[in-house]
Amino acid sequence: xxxxxxLSEAGYCSRREADRLIGEGRVTVNGLxxxxxxxxxxxxKVAVDGQTVAPRTPGAPNKRKHVYIxxxxxxxxxxxxxxxxxxNIVEAIGHEQRIFPIGxxxxxxxGLILLTSNGDIVNEILRAENSKEKxxxxxxxxxxxxxxxxGMAKGGIAMHGQTTLPCKVSKIGPVGFRIVxxxxxxRQIRLMCQHFGYRVKRLFRSRIVNIPIGHLKPGQWxxxxxxxxxxxxxxxxxx
Length: 239
Prior knowledge:
alpha+beta; Structural Genomics Hypothetical 15.5 Kd Protein In mrcA-pckA Intergenic Region, Chain A; nine-stranded mixed sheet; Alpha-Beta Plaits
C-alpha cells in the first residue's frame, strides 16, 4: 500500500495532504524519513511528527467506518488542521476523533463546511468535473445589476491560471445575490466580484450538493444523515 493511502485510510488526512507532509519530511517509516510515493509492508510502522499513526480497525457491519459532519463555520475560523494556527477549525469543533475539512471557506467567510475522517472522498467531492454544486448567498457593496449577474453567470474570468466555469446566479435583494458553483478556486467569488468592480461584504455558504446548512447556528455541527451520505457517496462500502 502507498504511504499516502495508508495515512488517508487511517483517517489522518487526505492523500494530497499526506503527500505534502511527506514532502516536508514530517513522516517516518520505521523511524526513517519517508519519501513521496513510498510503499509500505505489513509490519512497517508509520509516524507523523513523531506520533504513531495506527491503521484503522474496520467497522462492524452496517456501521460507518468514518466520521462525517456538517459544521456552520463562523467568520474568524481558519480551515486548517495545523494546531499552531490560532482559531483553526479542528480546535474550534473539538471533535473526539481526528477529522479534517473537505475543501475550505476563507477566514472572512461563513457557512457550511463538511469534515470527515475519510480522506479518500476529498478529491471526489472537490473535483469540478464531478459537478458537485456549492451554493452561496453573497452581499456586496453596491446595487446588483442585470449586467453584473449575466457576467458572473457567463464564466470565463481568469484567475489562478484557470478560467471560471458558467454558473447559476440570481438576485435576492438590492445588494445581494445567490450563486451556485461547481468549482472551488481560492477566493473565487470574491475575485469574480472584484472583476466587475464589486466588493464582497458578506459571503455565506448555504449548501453543498444535497446537504443544506439547515438550522445550524454559527459554531454548531451535526452528523450527516444516511440520505445525505448517499448523495455524496452512493457506494455504502465507502462510509
